[in-house]
Amino acid sequence: MTLQVDSYRYLDKLSKQMVTTWIRQETPRAIPWTPLTKPLSECTVALISSGGIALKTQPPFDQEKERRNPWWGDPSYRLIPRTTTAVDIRVYHLHINPAFAEEDLNCLLPLERLLELEQSREIGRSAPSHYSIMGYILQPDVLLAESTPAIIHQLQEEAVDAVVLVPT
To answer: Do residues 74 and 66 make contact, with C-beta atoms less than 8 angstroms apart?
Structure first.
């Protein structure tokens, strides 16, 4: 049985039409590309997931405010250690089924797969920290002004060479 997720389920019909129209009107932009300066087998690699993942010991992403205002999405981020497993996390994302990630974290944040790449020497190492944000943010001002610079700072502190984006 295949389940269909309606990413716009909390929007009224008019809002849903507006959002889908905006998305279709977006002009594709060039993707900034920075080639690696050393072989991948020497790189420190971090993951950034848009799955709304938080450790059970961390504050959850704010789903209640999004339920009250579907135009809002929590712009904060969560730092996820490299040794995190599915038993350590909760998924706070209203637009995906959290059960899959809570059973196998690798479907939203493939930490075990990254550690396997480290052990096989395909990458230099998995970064000490990885990150999760919400994948549904229609007003990204705070995400871009506060969370993104904080994540970049931490990536630089940990000498991360490459980041893998894991979309939801």
So the answer is: yes
CA distance linking residue 51 with residue 136, whole number of Å: 9
| Cβ–Cβ < 8 Å for 76, 135 | no
Alpha-carbon distances, residue 83 vs 48, 68, 88, 160 (angstroms): 15, 35, 10, 17
Span 28-46, pLDDT tens digits: 788 788 889 999 999 999 9
Percent of the chain with pLDDT strictly greater than 90? 61
Per residue in 119-144, pLDDT (tens digit) is 999 999 999 999 999 988 888 889 99
User: CA dihedral defined by 52, 56, 57, 62, rounded to 10 degrees?
Assistant: 40
Give the strand pairing for 44-49 and 125-126: parallel
- The residue type found at 161 is D
DSSP 134: B
Average pLDDT over residues 101-130: 95
Per the CB < 8 A criterion, the answer to whether 51 and 101 are in contact is yes
**Structure pTM?**
0.83
Backbone φ and ψ for 78, nearest 5 degrees, come out as -125, 135
> How many angstroms from the chain centroid is the CA of residue 127?
15
